[in-house]
Amino acid sequence: MRVERLSRDKIRFFLSMDDLMDRGIEKEDMWRDIPKVHELFNDMMDQAYQELGFEISGPVAVEVFALPAQGMVVVVTRGRVPSPSDLDELDGDDMYELEVTLEESDQVIFQFDDFEHLVQAAGSVRSLLGPLGRVYAYHDRYYLVLDTDMENETLQKGIAVLSEFGEVATVTEHVLQEYGKTIWDQGAVEEIVRYFA
């Protein structure tokens, strides 16, 4: 489980499939109000406090983005900070109120620390995935975005190959479009192989 601060009142977690399996949680469980999901959320908040000093009390918005075959991105935004008199009225079970939004992503996004790693990855998946994808540059990294409208077995093989050269990204394509630089907006795998491999 990785956590990063997005702003003063917003943090983002990346939960891998292993993180979920270690806790006996399936993706579908995140939609349910069960004790092990509450325990996971409490563990996440403990980690956020220890690593970032991020404390929550009062209203909290939680956005969960399920990533195909990769895990989940969970964005936690705290609302107003309650006054000391509000805290006196709350017992331990009511320290925060959750407003949860769930969304399933239909994309796989990989990040590469070096352009050469992206070139090697594209060369390795071209015959498997074809000329797909979009590439963005953001924060000195390169991001390959693939839509998941393909056979699940092909997608799983593609993810396995891409994992050899990069890692699953925790940013969404919306962030990359807004703050990053578009390198290829279509057919990126084919273009990379044509010009660099």
UniProtKB/TrEMBL annotation:
Purpose of the protein: Enables the recognition and targeting of unfolded and aggregated proteins to the ClpC protease or to other proteins involved in proteolysis.
GO molecular function, one term: protein-macromolecule adaptor activity
Protein name, UniProt field: Adapter protein MecA
Family: Belongs to the MecA family.
Cited Pfam families: MecA
PANTHER family: ADAPTER PROTEIN MECA, ADAPTER PROTEIN MECA 2
InterPro entries according to UniProt: MecA_C_sf (IPR038471), Neg-reg_MecA (IPR008681)
Assembly behavior: Homodimer.
Notes on the domains: The N-terminal domain probably binds unfolded/aggregated proteins; the C-terminal domain interacts with ClpC.
